[in-house]
Design brief:
By secondary structure, the protein is mainly β. The protein contains 1 helix and 9 strands.
Length: 138
């Protein structure tokens, strides 16, 4: 009889039907993003509020279970040797880790540089990643 109760208790304690908690990215306090010295405000959804035709969103992602999100932007530059991205948060303890990758497009002489910025804040599960793909046309 005791052996039959163990599986019943295990299934009763299983919480597979629990709803996933929605990430609340405002805890990261991101207020603006500076791209090549041009400053863009950031909306509540972390999208750049811009009207610059050389900047377009190319991908977005949300991994609700991991409390993680991402946005990827494509940016057209011309004759620029270096690219820069700075992220501003209203919280001093926010961590912003930058990465850089560079590749030459095989079918042309254009170079693509991808700057990544992963944003986290101690004590919170939410994390967000921006990726900026700079396509430099010579």
């Amino acid at each position: 009889m005791f052996v039959l109760l163990i599986p019943i208790l295990l299934f009763a304690c299983n919480d597979d039907g629990a709803e996933l908690k929605e990430p609340y990215f405002s805890v990261l306090g991101i207020t603006s993003v500076s791209i090549n010295d041009s400053v863009y405000n950031v909306g509540n959804d972390l999208h750049l509020q811009n009207t610059d035709p050389t900047i377009t969103i190319s991908a977005a992602g949300l991994q609700q279970a991991q409390m993680s999100g991402s946005l990827t932007y494509a940016i057209i530059t011309q004759g620029q040797d270096s690219q820069s991205v700075e992220i501003t948060s209203c919280y001093s303890e926010v961590s912003i880790v930058k990465t850089i990758d560079s590749a030459r497009i095989e079918t042309s002489n254009n170079e693509v540089t991808v700057l990544g910025c992963e944003i986290t804040r101690p004590g919170y599960n939410e994390d967000f990643t921006y990726r900026f793909g700079f396509v430099n046309f010579e």
